[in-house]
Amino acid sequence: MIRLIKDYDHTRNSRHQAQLRSDIQNIENTLNEHEYNLKRHESTKAAHTSEQIDHDGFTVGNRLKNLSARFANLVTNHDGSDVKEVVDARVTTEGEIAQTLKDRLDLEFNSLAQKIKRTVYVDDFGAVPDGKTDSTEAFKKALGNGRVRIELSAGTYIVKGIKLPSWTYLIGKGKGITTIKLHEDTPASEWVITNADYEQGNRNIFVQGMSLDWNPNRQGGVRATGGQHSSCLTFANVKYGWVKDVEAINPGLHGFDITAPTYDHLPTTDYTKTGSRYIWLDNCVAYGYGDDGITTHYSEYIFISNSHCVYPSGKAHKQGESNSNGIEIDDGSKHAWILNCYTEGNVRGVEVKAHAKWPAAQNVHVIGHVSYRDVRSYDIRHIGHHLASDPESMTAYGVILTDCTAIEPVFNSLYKDLSPRALVISAYKNVVVNGFTAIGDPSYDYKNYPAIALQYRSRNISLNGIQVRGFKKAEADIRLFGGNQRTDNVNISNFTLYKSAKSGIVIGGKVYNVNINNGIMTGDKGAYGITSPNSQANIVGVYAEGYDYAAMIKGQKYKYVPNNLKGGTRVATTSGYATSETGFIAASSGDPVASGEASSVIGSTGGCKAQGTRNVVLGSSDRSTATKDGSRSVIGSSNNVRIEGDGVSRTILSSQAVINNKSYTVALGYGTGSPSASNKKVELNAKAGNVLGTGRIESVSDLKDLAEYFESKDGSKIESGYLVTLDGDKIRKAEKGEKVLGVISETAGVIMGGAAFYWNDRYLRNEFGGIIYEEIDVESEDKDGNVVIQKELVPKENPHYDPDIEYIPREERDEWHVVGLVGQVYVRIDDTVQAGDSIVPSGGIGTKSEDGTGFYVMRIKQPYSHQKGYGVALVFMYPQL
């Protein structure tokens, strides 16, 4: 066996490579045929005739004829009656003796008749496998009306096309051993083999063990003529067909075409009525085809297994526009299985598609396929239904790829403008890809195109068990194209991306329904693991490393891939309902309900409900409810409470049997029986800043005095413990004989006049100090998310207020002091003071009162220190002014 190198350096022009491979293949075939014929000649029992062998000056044939004549002469002339000749004629070729010569003749005829009914040999009808003789008529005679098994010899039969009737077996000795080749005068429209009756159809046709050579070099070079003509083998309107161990060589159009008689069935018709059904192609090979290696049209229940389609010529198309595919499931096909096949050097390895006018292929299964260096390894599309302005495809459904591999897709001059990709899905819905492996060449320039592309209005796609590596110069491993022609409704799960494209998964604009789960992404100086212009993708359990950022979602960059969930959600709960898309229930029981947009029930029991928009029930029980008419409300740590009415921003905390229906308030309370607003005990009013309560206010710390802020007279700081007096509306240290306002305190339990949030004169006030209010229009959202305008009374701002000027609170400014007015305070004292004395000021320091007036000293906290110049006493203060 001679084997020549057929695959050259892959950086060569792809058409050049295909031509070289075809030429070398032809040389190899010829050399192997010569080798085979020589070995057959050496081993055959009838390599030469007896006339070709010399023996003592005579041929062996001559000597045998001489001996035969002499023997016959002895038999027929021994007694003149010829009786012994008749006796000799009764002996059959099997050595048996018939009763009479007629019996022997009848027996031999019957044996021959039976043999012809079971199997015939085309050579017996005049076919000669010499590569020269036109054997067309011999095949016609052998085939007859069908119901025949025809055996072919080794060698090459020249025909002008073979038409197979029903119930026919055509059996050769194997690929490359038996070849059927088209005659020089055969029209370009002919097939090597097809079925006989396109109109009525045929059934039960079996073709096995041969090569079919379309011979495109005849007549100086011919090409496909259009339609379904010009292929090596075509079944049109055939039921029950088998094609096994057959090779298709250089067909004008297709290597193998399983089809209807025409290619123009509209989707509104019964478009598989005249198509082929129940066809199995196994162990077939095609190369040099003008269009596709194996294709199907308007046919169903097709099985293609263990077959190879490599290196098309593309001559059925214009140069540079050759959509020549390895295996194509085309217009109107249904229920097709491609199992364990291989494609190489094609424009598309496996294509599932349809043209714009015709129905798309449906329910197609591709299992265990390998695509090597095809431009697009797997392409699923319905042409003419891609753009937003195109009509939606009503037939493009149901493609399943299982355990398929794409190896090094590359550019190819057959279709010069087509970018290489491992997988492309366009216009189809309900596509499942399981166990898909894409292996790129890290050094190959993919010109920033993605390895896997979901695009052009494709929908309902599941990619599971995807492995991608080696696409170093690609834009993305998986890209979901957005815009008006966007893909959507995509699941990507259990995937591994390893040292491949610049970005792992790229989601385009307006793509809102994507689930990305359980993935490992290992970049190699990549940019982003996942990118999305919005935050709508559900992302759970994805790990990324080796990228500048693991993710960029809605412009936010992450060093890790965040878990991101949308939609109504129930977590760790045995019952209940999240009836809105953004409702959330977690760790709750007793039929909780989250029925408003962005509402949630968390850690609650006993039928709690968050019904309004953006309402939350947290850690509560016993039917605690934020009703549907309001929004932005919270119930926390409460039992049997309700937020009612159509207001906003209402809260109930740590309460029982309380109703809150006032906007911008926090309510706390306790009661028994049914919920009631009268059970409120505390109300915090965010709008007015008021605190209302029915009980006492009590400090439980060691803070002991009531204080108020005062500004110092000279604007400087007065240290703690000094007694101060008023000088106008400001303070200074108190001297002897002056009335004491209070003491600079650090122990005040209640402090007034702080102005901690904004400038004290931010709002205008009336002559009695009350805030002046005005009515304004305020925008808000109702429970349905609609913007509404409401009239509200708000404090009127001082025209001199400038919100751009940073405000410093009084507690951070030296001129403002907390002055303890009433209660127990710490006061600086001199060395005259003892416990039980009364004190009066002297330079702001307490000194013993001579007449018993002043403030009572409860105890000495620190004795007088000459070094410090003061001691510290706990003094009870009370108003003097």
Automatic annotation (TrEMBL):
Keywords: Coiled coil
One Pfam family in the UniProt entry: Pect-lyase_RHGA_epim
SMART domains registered for this protein in UniProt: PbH1
InterPro entries hit by this protein: PbH1, Pectin_lyas_fold, Pectin_lyase_fold/virulence, Peptidase_G2, RHGA/B-epi-like_pectate_lyase
Annotated Peptidase G2 IMC autoproteolytic cleavage domain residues: 650-877
Residue span, Rhamnogalacturonase A/B/Epimerase-like pectate lyase domain: 122-321
Protein name: Peptidase G2
Keyword Calcium: no
UniProt entry tagged with the keyword Protein biosynthesis: no
Coiled-coil parts of chain: 17-44
Superkingdom: Bacteria
